[in-house]
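Researcher: I need the complex structure. Ligand is 2-acetamido-2-deoxy-beta-D-glucopyranose. Inputs:
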Amino acid sequence: MKAIIIIIFTFCLISGQVLCFRVIGCTGGSVMFKCMNSKQKTSDYQYKGKFFCRNRDCTPGISTEIQHRWVNNGRFSLYDDENSRFFRVFIRNLSREDDGEYTCGNKQKWSHDVTLVVNKNSSSCGTSVIQSANTSQTITFQCKYDHGFEKHTKVFYRVNVGPVHVLNSSQSSQSSEEKFILSDSQKDHFNVTLRDISTADGGVYLCGVERYGFSQKNTHITFIKEISLHVYGQRTSVQVEAYISKSVFIKCKFPQKFKGNKKFIQKDSSQKIPVDEQNQWVLHDKVHMFDDSSEGHLNIFISDLTAADEGTYRCGVKITDKHLFTEIKLKINQVDNFHGSSKSSAVVGESVKLICNYPEKHNETKHICKENKKKICQIISSSEQQRFEFSDSAAGVFTVIISNVRLTDAGVYWCGAETRHKHLTSVSLTNKHQLTLTMPPVIRHEGDSAEIKCPYDANQAKEIKRLCKGKCFTKDAQNIIQSDKANVKKYISVKNDTELNLFTVTITDLRAEDAGKYRCAVKDMVYLPIELMIIMKDGITHEVSVGGSVSISCKYIRKQNQSVFCRGDQPNICVRDGVRVSSNNRINGRFSLTDQTSAGVFTVNISNLTEEDCGKYWCGEEHSGSFIFTEVHLRVNRDTISSDRRETEDHEMAKEKCRDSDPESNPFYWTVQLPTNPSDGLLYAAVSFQKHEESLSDTSVGFSKDDIHCDYTSVNYSITAV
Ligand SMILES: *[C@@H]1O[C@H](CO)[C@@H](O)[C@H](O)[C@H]1NC(C)=O
Ligand SMILES: *[C@@H]1O[C@H](CO)[C@@H](O)[C@H](O)[C@H]1NC(C)=O
Ligand SMILES: *[C@@H]1O[C@H](CO)[C@@H](O)[C@H](O)[C@H]1NC(C)=O
Ligand SMILES: *[C@@H]1O[C@H](CO)[C@@H](O)[C@H](O)[C@H]1NC(C)=O
Ligand SMILES: *[C@@H]1O[C@H](CO)[C@@H](O)[C@H](O)[C@H]1NC(C)=O
Ligand SMILES: *[C@@H]1O[C@H](CO)[C@@H](O)[C@H](O)[C@H]1NC(C)=O
Ligand SMILES: *[C@@H]1O[C@H](CO)[C@@H](O)[C@H](O)[C@H]1NC(C)=O
Ligand SMILES: *[C@@H]1O[C@H](CO)[C@@H](O)[C@H](O)[C@H]1NC(C)=O
Ligand SMILES: *[C@@H]1O[C@H](CO)[C@@H](O)[C@H](O)[C@H]1NC(C)=O
Ligand SMILES: *[C@@H]1O[C@H](CO)[C@@H](O)[C@H](O)[C@H]1NC(C)=O
Ligand SMILES: *[C@@H]1O[C@H](CO)[C@@H](O)[C@H](O)[C@H]1NC(C)=O
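Model: Output:
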């Protein structure tokens, strides 16, 4: 041994003062060595500027002035510590091309020749493997070495910015309590066992053997194996239950510090799908993903669930050389006891109740969400929740009341309950509700006037606008007004307000035949219909006695046969909630209805009158959803005198004597929230109807151009078609 060293030493001395040494690695492996001057003066090390280079331009190689930390240049790394008598060089992923002569040294004072030998003959050297482990598991890495290294020290390193010593076989204290244990067969392999793995243990490790250079003092390490350890953070997967043909919303939470990192999802053993964009929905197959950079969440939405969607999903974040993820076991239940999809209609300005049922075990926060244009159901944000009132009505059932319904509320809703886990929350959406809207009706007396304001987008000023009665754009459409044509009726006036982007149609001197549904249309877009209900000028008053009966004769204004008799303050609510008899249901207890078509009337009889019968009633006639009403006042006296009168003076008197029969009802003018800023992509419609005696505040509604789902008639409701 000594002889060999002397020979090398002597050989190296042949080239003058310069020492030389040899470093051996293998293809695919790494090598680490010290560049050291055994004849150095301490002062020589105070010079910065260390290098390990093959050519003058130092490619390949590395040169740096930086001290006290590893500096990298591709596969070459250098660590210069001014207090030591050497500096370290580390070369990773060696190839045959690296084989050759190099120089290492201090730029000012000294240099050595280094022969780098890259051996490709070793069967065990230069291997690279990926191993996976779950947290708290134990894993063993096996490192094979070639014949001849039995007595050499075996080392185990971890790669950080540079190589970091973990442990070696010559370390004396190796109790079984240690996190890392190295056991050397002293024949052909050694094992390194890593216990109680945590996510922090993930990374790249190196197995190596110590080799001698030209002296026992100057050794180098040949790394023979590289191991990439992936540690799966959350070993327990989260079970998420969803239902066939329904949807599921999952929010995966990651530590705030990874907000900017790329997220991914992975189904079963398929490829990881990176979420390339932040803060927008991205679709892959049928999985919608949204990387919320402000929260550091990854939202996942899957709709129209089928059995094929069942499986193990991972939602994760990429962190340098490892991944952090949550495993989701999505279970699709084939049957459910939930209501099928339901359709509800709401009047703008009123409220609407939606009923949701959910599996009782998911009894945490309840949610309702609305589908957007991409049919993604996002959880309604808390700011909007003021108008959404949740209440538990029974086990497994909750209701949501949406108050002050706006045009933008039309659409498809889903509701469901949330389940919460440490790293994710999921909402299994179980009920679908299709919400359509109608405008509140406009109710006027004969002779009054009604003003209909039709909105249009600023860029539609030049487009043809119309107000149609009944349908628009059909052959039988009745255009009340069309902006490119002369007025069709003399009692209609049009005002064109180009500043507010409104055109206003005023119908004066209303007549019974003006009752009906009106629609504003701009170009080919039609807005929600507005129903105009007409109340006949003359009402009917009957004064009757308790115990007696009354026969009320209501005149048909049109030649229609749908008649209704109802009780209530406002005719529109009366026909909805207060119907006593109608042409579809002619006998109802003490109430009966008969048609005298020849006389152009229908008669309603009420027998066995009580004092409670006193109040306001309406005779109504309906044709294709257009109503004409006659107000009926019934006074019930204790005395036995019975009299029938039809004069308007008595009508007013009766009103005073008899209390409101329906104290809970609202006036028929609706206060609908105005859009705060009409220019923010909102089209706004203002509908105001004037009555001569009172001054009324405008009733305005705001709505955006999309999101309106209407299922009326055959006209084109595609409000997005701008
Ligand atoms: C190692 O280098 C070879 C080329 O010599 C390259 O193909 C390979 O990707 C490298 N491996 C790593 C882990 O960098
Ligand atoms: C590799 O080994 C073969 C025989 O096993 C030998 O002939 C060859 O010279 C060796 N090459 C190197 C570069 O050591
Ligand atoms: C980690 O745990 C999961 C679920 O318990 C299991 O399927 C997987 O095989 C484990 N991985 C390893 C490397 O043990
Ligand atoms: C082995 O470990 C001991 C103790 O940490 C250390 O003193 C020694 O230099 C190491 N040897 C090698 C070759 O890394
Ligand atoms: C190393 O691990 C392998 C497989 O786990 C085992 O067969 C072998 O005996 C171990 N060797 C040592 C020296 O512990
Ligand atoms: C949810 O249900 C579980 C068991 O059915 C019960 O222990 C828990 O108190 C319930 N939580 C709520 C918020 O109702
Ligand atoms: C409203 O005024 C604008 C600008 O003067 C004009 O282009 C448009 O045709 C008018 N619309 C109606 C309905 O009169
Ligand atoms: C209704 O009352 C009138 C007179 O009070 C009576 O002639 C008629 O037969 C009654 N009709 C019914 C259906 O009760
Ligand atoms: C309305 O009139 C039509 C024909 O004129 C008739 O077929 C229908 O039965 C009538 N409906 C009612 C409720 O009287
Ligand atoms: C009216 O009252 C009488 C006696 O109280 C009763 O016999 C009769 O059935 C009642 N008629 C109706 C339609 O309720
Ligand atoms: C509805 O409007 C869209 C867009 O303008 C148009 O493509 C479609 O043909 C229209 N449909 C009908 C029934 O008018």
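Model: Summary of the prediction. The longest strand covers residues 424-438.
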